[in-house]
Amino acid sequence: MKSQFTDEALAQIQACGAIAVLVIDDAANAVPTAKALMDGGINAIELTLRTPAALDALANIRREIPEMLAGVGTILTPEQVQKVAEAKAAFGVAPGLNEKVVLAAQAAGLPFAPGIMTPSEIEKAVELGCRELKLFPAEPCGGMKYLKAVSAPYAHLGLKYLPLGGLSLENIGPYVESPLLLALGGSWIAKRDLIQKQDWATIRANAQATREKIDGIRGK
Predict the structure, then answer these.
(1) Under CATH, which number does the domain 7-214 receive?
(2) Which one of 2, 8, 35, 46 is the catalytic residue?
């Protein structure tokens, strides 16, 4: 089963090991946030559609820092898919599995990872042609122990998972060690309040600590 993501995007996501999940209220903060993340060694982000500034933030980052792999998350409707695709996001992500959204993403040529938590949702996602799946909420539903169990019947399909929800620098070890992982979803790296306060130094330090933790576990 072929991925909807480009080989280049997959390689960058896997090499990075963490996608910084961002809630940006002011598009003017997008580029400084992205620069701080890049300086700390994180070059993949998910801009969530939880604020009206998300697509303007994407445009700013694409223009100023094209080397940052910038996707969009919290895509809940086919209409949002269209806007995200037109804004040339590198990929799309959703918290759940909505067939209409998945089909709209495929029609628009937007690489897409739907959210899953149950075997039925995994099977539906596979039926729709998805190979990268977001496990949400990862820690509340049982963490890596749960992911190992729920993914076991589908191991031969080569699915890759993006766990998000309840993750922190302290508990990511078992995820990073797993061959099931595509990358972590990291909302702790650049928290909303840090972006609002324009605390670029802390964001850069969080990114660097995440980079060092992942590389250390991988033996780099």
Answers:
(1) 3.20.20.70
(2) 46
